[in-house]
Design goal:
CATH topology: TIM Barrel
Bound molecules: flavin mononucleotide
Shape: globular
CATH architecture: Alpha-Beta Barrel
Distance between the termini: 44 Å
Order of helices and strands: EEEHEHHHHEHEHEHEEEHEHEHHHH
CATH superfamily: Aldolase class I
Number of domains: 1
Number of strands: 12
Largest sheet: 8 strands, parallel, barrel
Strand order of the largest sheet: 3-4-5-6-7-8-11-12
Helix content: 40-55%
Number of helices: 14
């Protein structure tokens, strides 16, 4: 008898734990169809960005109410947005069309950092039929007057303001740079998050020596980037009543298994799909089944969280315990 790969994420029943995360690989109907055909259990559409939405709202407002030269000039500040066709209308159309032609759940994504008018689009996204919404909060605080409590308050207010717009499940995708991760994640839950997507990869800008500019570089992930979300998923699993998704560094079937053992409900993938295409999902699924069977597990649900902080044989491994030993026993091989 085969193993049961199904899992629950954000209250949605998924056929397996493989989800295509937000990125170019989920940006068109053709790509989405192909992902479903290859076995993806759900898809997260690329983000609609706060900057696009604030621009859009302001542009519409200005167009109809103040047809000034300043408006025309203002548009020139957004050349990249003018060329980038995924404005809100196109986005809502993608949500609607993907809902019409896919059977798997479609999760839309909003990406921003400040509470503001743009969050009303959450409601539009819900009306367009999205099964759930992922809110990616990407904020880089640079003001020394802003305390960590101020930063956390901003996250919480933003989550609460999106929550007020929608009744569909809400996942929050954030980076790892908080001093007290379990506490802040619990605040997110209280503000209305139903799930966490851990972790956002921050783009670190490099300096171009030719023109003395900071330039962000988009690099695909490396496998070791899984280790950070693995630890925090394991720590959070039994402490918070939230759905958990791993994002960053899921490249092999083993990585999916580790994510589930730590306590994730799903493993999300972008770099892997960009490098090897959607067909790679067809390869992962039997490998995952085979490992479960060999390990004596009958289902993903049975295996989920068996290496969480509460369940792992040596919980101190997730804390400081072996830090000094690991450093002092390093060998240059
Ligand atoms: C080219 C590219 C575009 C991305 N676009 C988005 C996006 O629109 N919204 C979002 O939340 N994450 C976006 N991501 C982040 C991915 O969803 C994912 O979290 C990240 O790449 C880590 O997962 P991976 O190791 O599987 O690549 C993007 C990543 C890449 C490489």
């Amino acid at each position: 008898m085969g193993v049961d790969l199904s899992t629950r994420y954000l209250g949605l029943k998924l056929a397996n734990p493989l989800v295509a995360s937000a990125g170019p690989q989920t940006g068109s109907l053709d790509k989405l169809r192909k992902l479903e055909e290859c076995g993806a259990a759900a898809v997260v559409l690329p983000s609609l960005f706060e900057e696009q939405l604030e621009h859009d709202q302001w542009a519409i407002h200005s167009l109809y109410e103040h047809q000034t030269e300043a408006f025309a000039e203002s548009l020139s500040y957004f050349p990249e947005m003018e060329d980038y066709n995924t404005g809100p209308r196109t986005y809502l159309q993608l949500v609607r069309e993907s809902k019409q032609c896919l059977k798997i759940p479609v999760i839309a994504s909003l990406n921003g950092a400040t509470p503001g008018g743009w969050v009303h689009y959450a409601k539009e996204i819900q009306s367009a039929g999205a099964d759930a919404l992922e809110l990616n909060i990407y904020f880089v605080p640079t003001d020394p007057e802003m305390t960590s409590a101020d930063v956390e308050r901003r996250y919480v207010e933003l989550i609460a303001s999106v929550r007020r717009e929608v009744s569909i499940p809400l996942a929050v995708k954030v980076g790892p740079f908080f001093s007290a991760i379990p506490h802040v994640m619990r605040q997110f839950a209280r503000a209305g998050a139903n799930g966490l997507v851990l972790f956002n990869r921050y783009l670190e800008p490099d300096i171009e020596l030719d023109n003395l500019q900071f330039t962000p570089r988009v690099l695909l992930s490396s496998r070791h980037e899984l280790w950070r979300p693995l630890r925090w998923i394991a720590v959070l699993r039994d402490q918070l009543d939230l759905s958990l998704a791993v994002t960053s560094g899921v490249h092999f079937a083993e990585d999916v298994l580790k994510a589930i053992l730590a306590g994730a409900d799903v493993a999300m993938m972008t770099s892997l799909l960009l490098r090897h295409g959607p067909e790679t999902i067809r390869r992962l699924l039997p490998e995952i089944s085979h490992w479960l069977e060999t390990g004596g597990y009958s289902s993903i649900e049975q295996m989920k969280g068996s290496m969480s902080l509460k369940n792992c044989p040596d919980a101190s491994q997730l804390e400081r315990a072996n830090y000094m030993k690991a450093l002092t026993s390093y060998t240059d091989t």
